[in-house]
């Protein structure tokens, strides 16, 4: 890539737009579910799959998208993802029944898998200087977190003003503009050596993620001792064993297990799961609490989350700069501490709790989300060669999507979600201290020249 000819700010803006529409569609649909239920006569299971079909496809295929982009070209995969996501959004808005909507959501997510990690790899490639890259990732993380928070607000506005189909149709013109801008301004990049497709590894990854999530969701009605739930967990365990045995035998595995020999990288993936699991549970429970317990409208409930979005917008770029100059330890400790305090505080919320106290709890989660994404991403990709950028970014994004999916599932299956969030926050602090105390590049991987 001829760096001087690249408008890096514009490339970053294009990537941020793509991540906004993908991430926002995780949370925006929650507000629209009551209208979808009435209009399409959807059952509870149908409503659940409207959300789960999206997040599961995102989590299951992000690694494949990242490695494919490394092989065939990141710009090419990015453009394909935009087109598929736009088509899926259009079909969601036209869906005549809940089954059609679920299928269109899966298609929409298939496009999203080609945007999330690939956009991050494009940003990392456009900013080769580590300090500049950390700041750019901070902005990218701010847009990602802000989109997740502002989804319910935008959803409430669109549903109240134009109906539930508008939450999908709004994506179409945005994606069309992004396609034109990408084709013109985003440079092509790819790994120096092509990596072959790993169908067995891909099936095993989907099997593990799908079985774990299905088991947690199923435990709500069947119980943890149910043969179905135990069977799903057994399938997940066998899938993990298959990955451990099969993947190291391939020359170009889907999952580069040697990356996990790096303590910082492994910790970053686990922290991504913990962090987004905590926030996914918070978002699900809080929107239900504000509407069902406090009696607020969908739009008013979304507006109560505005403090979270404001803090994410302010803190993520600052955190990116801090990571670039001082490293990820302090932001990660702050994030974990805020999640712990927020979880403890939210466990005591009740119908008569003053709204000011509710907003104060949201501020804690805003501090948490605003300080957690940039250091996790930087930790995951630190020391990785450019040829592994797509794979490393894909694994980090998979951790986030898996965490979000698990958070929603756990929120409906486990009582006392606030204490679960507090435990996740404490675990985040411990992992932050461990991961930043060890600096080791995995064996067989050449460190990036800084």
Q: What is the fold named in CATH at topology level of the largest domain?
A: Growth Hormone, Chain: A
- Tell me the number of structural domains: 2
Q: Treating each run of at least 4 consecutive H or I residues as one helix, how many helices? A: 17
Major sheet: size, sense and barrel closure?
Answer: none
Shape type: globular
Number of strands: 0
Give structural notes.
The protein is mostly helical and 450 residues long. It folds into 2 domains: 7-185 and 254-435, MFS general substrate transporter like domains (Growth Hormone, Chain: A); 199-253, no CATH class. 78% of the residues lie in helices and 0% in strands. It has helices at residues 8-40, 44-72, 74-94, 98-113, 116-126, 130-162, 166-169, 171-185, 199-222, 227-246, 263-293, 298-303, 306-326, 329-346, 355-381, 389-413, 417-435. The model is unreliable at 440-444 and 446-450 (pLDDT under 50).
């Amino acid at each position: 890539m001829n760096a001087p000819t690249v408008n890096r700010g514009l490339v970053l803006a294009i990537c941020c737009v793509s991540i906004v529409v993908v991430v926002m569609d995780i949370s925006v649909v929650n507000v629209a579910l009551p209208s979808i239920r009435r209009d399409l006569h959807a059952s509870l299971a149908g409503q659940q799959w409207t959300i789960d079909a999206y997040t599961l496809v995102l989590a299951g295929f992000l690694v494949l998208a990242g490695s494919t982009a490394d092989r065939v070209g990141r710009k090419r995969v990015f453009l394909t993802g935009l087109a598929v996501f736009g088509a899926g959004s259009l079909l969601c808005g036209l869906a005549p029944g809940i089954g059609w909507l679920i299928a269109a959501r899966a298609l929409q997510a298939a496009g999203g898998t080609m945007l999330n990690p690939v956009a991050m790899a494009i940003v990392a490639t456009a900013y080769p200087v580590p300090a500049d890259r950390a700041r750019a990732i901070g902005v990218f993380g701010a847009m990602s977190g802000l989109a997740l928070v502002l989804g319910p607000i935008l959803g409430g506005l669109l549903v109240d003003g134009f109906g539930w189909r508008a939450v999908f149709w709004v994506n179409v013109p945005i994606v069309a503009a992004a396609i034109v801008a990408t084709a013109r301004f985003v440079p092509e990049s790819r790994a120096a050596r092509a990596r072959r497709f790993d169908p067995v590894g891909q099936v095993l990854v989907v099997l593990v993620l799908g079985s774990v999530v299905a088991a947690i969701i199923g435990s709500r009605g069947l119980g943890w001792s149910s043969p179905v739930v135990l069977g799903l967990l057994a399938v997940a365990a066998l899938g993990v064993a298959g990955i451990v045995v099969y993947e190291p035998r391939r020359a170009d595995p889907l999952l580069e297990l040697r990356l996990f020999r790096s303590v910082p990288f492994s910790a970053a993936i686990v922290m991504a799961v913990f962090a987004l699991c905590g926030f996914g549970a918070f978002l699900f429970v809080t929107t239900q609490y504000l509407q069902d317990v406090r009696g607020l409208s969908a739009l008013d409930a979304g507006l109560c989350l505005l403090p979270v979005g404001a803090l994410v917008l302010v803190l993520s770029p600052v955190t990116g700069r801090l990571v670039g100059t001082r490293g990820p330890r302090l932001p990660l400790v702050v994030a974990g501490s805020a999640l712990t305090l927020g979880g403890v505080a939210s466990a005591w919320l009740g119908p008569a709790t003053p709204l000011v106290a509710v907003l104060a709890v949201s501020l804690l989660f805003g501090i948490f989300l605003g300080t957690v994404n940039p250091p996790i991403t930087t930790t995951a990709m630190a020391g990785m060669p450019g040829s592994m950028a797509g794979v490393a970014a894909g694994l980090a994004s998979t951790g986030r999507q898996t965490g979000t999916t698990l958070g929603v599932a756990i929120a409906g299956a486990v009582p006392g979600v606030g204490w679960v969030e507090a435990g996740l926050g404490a675990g985040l602090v411990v992992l932050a201290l461990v991961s930043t105390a060890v600096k080791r590049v995995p064996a067989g991987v050449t460190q990036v020249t800084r």
